[in-house]
Specification:
By secondary structure, the protein is of the alpha/beta class. Helices cover 31% and strands 25% of the residues.
């Protein structure tokens, strides 16, 4: 067997890619992974999530949380003189965090004896990959595509990296604009809105649908809108952007709401309206790989239309979350190894947003449950009635649960409030084990903890909440 002949070759070192590579290596397969150099001599392992997404943004959001706590410090009996907030140092810290974790993944790749090619690859066939810079050829019995996705421009909103930026450029800003417009109110949009607002930037969000975080349960969206208004974050709903143009030191947009045209000016516009798959230049046609809406088409086992070629992560367009890519990568690896795998229920994948207050959800919204014909019961328990939330001074929001009225099957859970992105795992485990509202309601939760809100919400489904 030649040096460049492998059982599995993974094209892309993001969340799905490196999970797939490590799992195939653990299962005894000769594995390679291809990820281009990021310019520093270190391959961009970890993908957008680790380098320019999940991890650095959460580092900055922690900074924003501390800034807001310091601004509100008098209620804690703490006073400051001449406080300053250096955004450039926050950016530097976020880059250091990413670098540390990227190096950790490179260590795991070496530890598992995975061959790392710091290059760009493209398919010559379903079993052969060419490397762009070195010109080398790789033969592989199986190939896993994990090339991810990138921010998508819209007509009249072409990303240029200067006036119209993405989260990537936002994570490199050394100085802050006085005002910024954010196009799109999904997770990325509201997270950056919270971040910039904390540092004193005038923020306006433009959302084409009728609510912030429009994919969440409507009650969650309404609560976030109320809290963002109190924080001073502006937003325009049902807003359709018509045109943009550069002006002296900034950008101007024309937009429409219910037929009325309006104008907005800011130094920068941040695009947060979705992504497109990184499939161009991959040679997919040479391997006979079908696309669906521009994304690689896969079945439940991550298999593409080409035998021996798999795809995982954002390039599949299934659900743009790193932890979904983790699971997809493992399924692809275990399928290649001949193991039996359970298909992913994408509805039961936890979905988290890390502004303050945090948002976490799993399963069906109330509207979706009704549309699917369920006879439901619904509860909503406020953090204002939770002792720990009052004690730590963070009692905005609530936990909402939706269950089948007859069987008690938990159909969905939706949370907005302190640390709910940690609390959603409890509900995820219950759904995985096909439990009902009774199990959570009967389970003793430690006191005082924020998770008591989950228990009380479950009790509320049967009118049994103690503190309500």
């Amino acid at each position: 067997m030649s040096e460049n002949n492998f059982d599995v070759t993974v094209l892309g070192g993001g969340p799905g890619g490196y999970h797939a590579a490590i799992r195939t290596a653990q299962l005894g397969l000769k594995t390679a992974i291809i990820e281009k150099d990021d310019g520093s001599g270190i391959a961009g392992l970890g993908g957008v999530c680790l380098n320019w997404g999940c991890i650095p943004s959460k580092s900055l959001l922690k900074n924003a949380e501390l800034v807001n706590q310091i601004k509100d410090s008098e209620k804690w009996g703490i006073s400051f003189d001449n406080v300053s907030f250096d955004f450039s140092k926050a950016i530097t810290r976020s880059r250091d965090v990413s670098k540390q974790l990227t190096q950790g993944i490179e260590y795991l790749i070496k530890k598992n004896k995975i061959q790392l090619f710091k290059d760009e690859g493209f398919l010559e066939s379903s079993t052969e990959i060419s490397l762009k810079s070195s010109g080398e050829k790789i033969s592989s019995k199986n190939i896993i595509l994990a090339t991810g996705a990138r921010p998508r421009s819209l007509p009249n909103l072409e990303i240029d990296g200067k006036g119209i930026i993405t989260s990537r450029e936002a994570l490199e800003l050394k100085s802050l604009p006085k005002a910024i417009g954010i196009i799109g109110a999904g997770a990325i949009g509201v997270e950056f809105a919270y971040l910039f607002n904390a540092y004193g930037v005038e923020v306006t969000i433009f959302e084409a649908q009728d609510h912030l975080v429009p994919n969440e349960d409507e009650s969650i969206s309404q609560e976030l809108e109320k809290i963002f208004k109190a924080q001073g974050i502006k937003f325009e709903l049902n807003a359709r952007v018509l045109n943009t143009k550069g002006s002296d030191g900034g950008m101007e947009i024309e937009y429409e709401i219910n037929g009325e045209q309006k104008n907005y000016s800011a130094e920068k516009l941040l695009m947060a309206v979705g992504v497109q798959a990184n499939t161009d230049g991959l040679g997919l046609e040479k391997a006979g790989i079908e696309l669906d809406r521009g994304f690689v088409k896969i079945n439940d086992l991550m298999q593409t239309s080409s035998l021996g070629v798999f795809a995982v992560g954002d390039v599949t367009g299934k659900l743009m979350l790193a932890h979904v890519a983790f699971t997809q990568g493992v399924i692809a690896a275990e399928t290649i190894s001949g193991l039996e795998c359970t298909p992913i229920n994408y509805s039961d994948m936890p979905r988290c947003t890390y502004c303050q207050p945090q948002i976490a959800s799993i399963g069906l919204t109330e509207k979706q449950a009704k549309e699917e014909g369920y006879n439901i019961k619904v509860s909503q328990f406020p953090f204002m009635a939770v002792g720990k939330a009052i004690a730590v001074g963070d009692s905005e929001g609530f936990v909402k649960m939706i269950a089948d009225k007859e069987s008690g099957e938990l159909l969905g859970a939706h949370m907005i409030g302190p640390e709910v992105t940690e609390m959603i795992a409890e509900v995820g485990l219950l759904k995985y084990l096909e439990g009902t509202d009774i199990e959570i309601a009967e389970l003793t939760h430690a006191h005082p903890t924020l998770s008591e809100a989950v228990k009380e919400a479950a009790l509320s489904l049967n009118n049994g909440a103690i503190h309500m």
